[in-house]
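Purpose: get a first structural picture of the assembly so the mutagenesis plan has something to point at.
Setup: two entries, given in the order below. No constraints added.
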Amino acid sequence: MATQTAVAVRAGRKWSTQRRREVAWAYAFLTPAFFFLIVLLLFPILFAFWISLRDWSLIPRPYPFVGLGNYVEAFKDPLTIKSIKNTFIYTIGAVPVSMVISLALALVMNLETLPFRTLFRTAYFIPVITSWVAVSFVWIWMFEPRWGLVNTFLAWFGIHGIKWLASPKWALPAVIIVSIWKGLGYNMVIFLAGLQTIPRELLEAAKIDGASRWQSFWSVTLPLLNPTIVFITVTAVIGSLQVFTPAVIMTSGFGGEAGGPINSTRVMVYHIYSMAFRANRLGYGAALAFILFAIVLVVTIIQLRVTQRDIEYG
Amino acid sequence: MAKTWTRRALLRFAGVAGGAAALAACGATPTPQVVEKVVEKEVTKIVEGTPQVVKETVVVQETVVVERTVEVPAATQELKPIKLTHWQHHSDARAKTVEQFVARFQDLHPNVTIDFQSIPWNDYWGKLASGIAAGKGSAPDVFQIPMGLVGEYVLGGNLVPVSEQVITTKDIEDTYLAWTIERGKREGKYYGLPLDVQTLLPFRNDALFQEVGLDPKKPYADMADFYDQSLKLTKKANGVTDQIGCDTSYYCAWLTVLFQQFLQREKGGTPWIDPKTNKLVWNDYPEIFQDFEWFIKLSTDTDDDAFLKGQSRFALGKVGASLNHPVSRGSLKLQAPDLKYTITPFPKRKSDQKEYYTAGSHWMWVVGKWAPDFEVAWQWVYFCTNKAAQLVWTDVGGDLPSHKELVDDPKFRQDENAVVCMDSLKYASPWEWVGWAEWVKEMQDARDRVVIGGDDTRKSFETMIDNLNKVIETHTPKQS
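Result (structure tokens, whole complex):
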């Protein structure tokens, strides 16, 4: 008995020393990452929250503690409500349409019989790598009501007089159209990758069983693309909730505030930027940023709950 | 062939060297001349001091220092070393100009080092705020801010007043245009020296005016005449616009000049904010609402928001008249070199108004309370804002001068447009605003709600005033 205990203790000591060494090395390797995580991520987040609890101006002066005052003001501020509403309209308008079109494109680009397939794939991807600023300026000219390409094209079908960026009704749809156009290539490439992971045997089996192309797509391709769809949905929704550049550049007036006309394109991130850095209200801007963070978090959790499901083959 | 030293040559050398050493001991150093040459170049600058950020491309003349050495007073050689940091937002031409000033100032003050940083516009405010929040060592000792923010910076306890040893209060008032120092004054002291001055003036397209039988050189009789002329210049039919009479898209500028013209010219300079209530006085005067209505009518009848939206409509020759800053002359020269235009004074409210009016804007150079030596810091600011420096600045950026003596300088009055621009300095008053972006936005929304949204004019006017009063309240520092 005594011998067994001694062996166990010796073994324990030996294991413990090795374990300690491993842990020490693990911490040694993790320390730089932890350092940057804490200094560059955690501390700024906590500090931003601290700022959001104060009447913190970009102009240095005493910053009185206001508690949740900035958050209460945000929910009472019609401009904040309007910018949240615009952000959701943008997201609902841009994400589903973009996904449907890019999936259709991916299905076409996946056809082995399609001539110049690589050329088309490249062409659809070019907008993705083009600067948002350049794209926005080009589309401003295209949406010009009098001489713009879009209205010239619509006129062929008897549609006249849409004022696009000058109209509170059409300005946000114009921004959505540009975002869809620019994002198509990216989503298409992800869908293509997803399509290529689907085992060919399953599609062939469906064909042998007499399934039509539509049945094959609906019952085999689409369910197997679920992980890809979840990925694109979640990332696209998060990206859309944080839209900034097109909504700002396409709606900036003569050096004035973007987001017009009459706040019809004022989105949440621009509202935060404007309050924090153009109106010098850093505390209020920080509170708005945390509200947006909460919105993104809740929407993402809901999305994951709804879209993630097990796939049963059989 | 090796040179051999004779006794005489050696004695001569020793004498010269001894003399030089003696002179050096007395403090005199060699004084080669500063040689400068002027070159033309294109730069993009931001029209500063206004609540709206407007970028203009201008053709400028730049004075380049080719060689520089100046006399160094002996006394300064023994002073303790001082390092000043100076931040300003970036433009190529301005940065090079300040670098030249730095070199000259350091030559004159060998114990002083200026650490000059030219910061991109988008990073300037964030960096300035965090630098000042971090305090001494991180904050710039000298920096520039728009005139409308000086008050908030002073109330925040961030700035020190101009050193009387450098320039006295009386000298400031004798040297600079009164309206360009007004916003820098708090409790009898000045907290900044002005630069980058701009006013607001109507620009007219000569060809379009002549086409409808109007004389582009003849100033407007009054605001009614302005409206009539703009309407005559407008080409709209069946919902299609081919030309607009007046570009009203600089909403904030329009409304400010209109409202202030009334208060300055008809109400003897009544303050725009009632000091007792800390609220705007605009609702107290029916005339101000009338001016707002006039602007709405002008926008509706002679402008079209959808027409060439986002483009330089005046440069494209599709606008009869436009409200602009004098610095816009540079960008027009580049964008539309063949465009002939005339700059006129802003129309008087009524034809019997005695004097013209316009609103002016500028930036101020200020010194932080953490500067290592206030006097030297202000010496540096004065060095960059005095008469000689302003001659260079005006060449570089196309800015109007703030120095009184330069207003009538023939150098800046070489054509009719330049004369109108320089004269506007004499009758301008500061462009009043609070909160910057919020101010711009409220004025923009007030106009758009009526012209685009079809809202009631009175209701929109009152909403604007209510919202602006909230902005004023928000930006009035509270006791912690």
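Residues 2-52 of chain A form the longest helix (51 residues).
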